[in-house]
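Give me the fold.
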Amino acid sequence: MGAVLVVVSIVISKWGYRFGIPTLLLFLFTGMLFGSDGLGLQFNSHKDAQLVGMVSLSVILFTGGMDTKFKEIRPVLMQGVLLSTVGVLLTTFITGFFIYYLSEWTNLGIKLSLPLCLLLAATTSSTDSASVFNLLRSQGIGLQHNMRPTLELESGSNDPMAYMLTIALISLIGSTGEFSVIEVIGMIIVQLTVGAALGYVCGRLLVWVINHINLPNPSLYPVLMLSFILIIFTLTDLAKGNGYLAVYVAGLVAGNSTLSYRRETNTFMQGITWLLQIVMFLTLGLLVNPREMLTVWIAAVAIGFFMMLVARPAAVFLTLIPFRIPARAKVFLSWVGLRGAVPIIFATYPVIADIENAHVLFNVVFIITLLSLLFQGTTIATLARKLKLDMPAPKEGNEFGVELPDELGSQLEELTLREEDLANGNRLADMNFANGTLVMMIKRGNSFIVPNGKLELYPGDILLSISNLTKDSSKKQKEVNPAIK
């Protein structure tokens, strides 16, 4: 039955993609369709759903870290870190006091104490990495002003802050007057420090092991990496650090290091990430009972739109005051505060901790997530065009489908010939290439040509060249093939 659900989700997502509907939202709806209030599949274990979410998020965050390049996030590192910490705090408190106002002064079917209001806000305070990574990459959205790496950095690193706020508020609500703010601040510092440190150390260890273990079958390398991810998360959690931050940092380290069998590993990790996203959203869809949401849907819709239109924009504009970023870029950053699986998973913690009105919180969080994916997720590309912030997304790979292992120390480059490139002659031998560069292949229309120096070239030909990155790698190349100069 689980396999049937996955197949149905993938088939439905094919049509949803054509209309710009986020695929993750469709996975969520599929789970609801087959759930207790739909076709009758019974699943009501918040603990099992939380476990599925923790495992899935670990892999998703690691893969997101691997796909993020230091050279892209370096210019936006400070603003991304501030959004993922100060931005989360501001969103929590602004939204929390608004929920308290709804609870005290309106008749919208929701009555919560201030700590519970802040807890509800904390669970929904972070942007969802799975949703952001999925939308930006699957729709090929390119953005100006370094907004894409900013959004990816924020969504990949703000879960730890939301998680710690959630755990701290649960401790506050469950305490009997023995709650210490100093202890909470100390816990947050320890979680961030231990998580970042262990993530970096374990990431370096993972890279070293993969590059030196010399396994007999290349297919075992990605399996080894997957096992390492779960070990890193668990080890960090046992050491009182933040496992989500640790796996993201480890992914950053691995993705920006020389790695054996990178192509095979990336292919495997992308596939397993998609599978875990489907399983996670299906599980959360099965867990919810839509009938229970009817009693709180008005309040949940009000909170959801307040977060989208007031709390998130206020947090973004206030946090980014020190930076020279155009107002339209801040408007876009405010709108892409997508909620997804993370808030729903965090909302299972109060239920498991047996906090009063925890099921009310869970249902409200679920509705807020649906609203976010439905309204924000379907309008990102349109808003980018309206604000004139869109640009062609960076192309991945090349026209030839050729990749090189990192250990070769060489890089591939493409060149599309123009009339002026052939001014000194139209043969390959007439072209002025830098030392250490060799043209490997030429694409002309739909044909591929292995060239020699006498080959005549024409405008529109695409040349694939290989060049050396370092002197050492150049020396190694010449040892293999003395013809490379």
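The longest strand covers residues 437-444.
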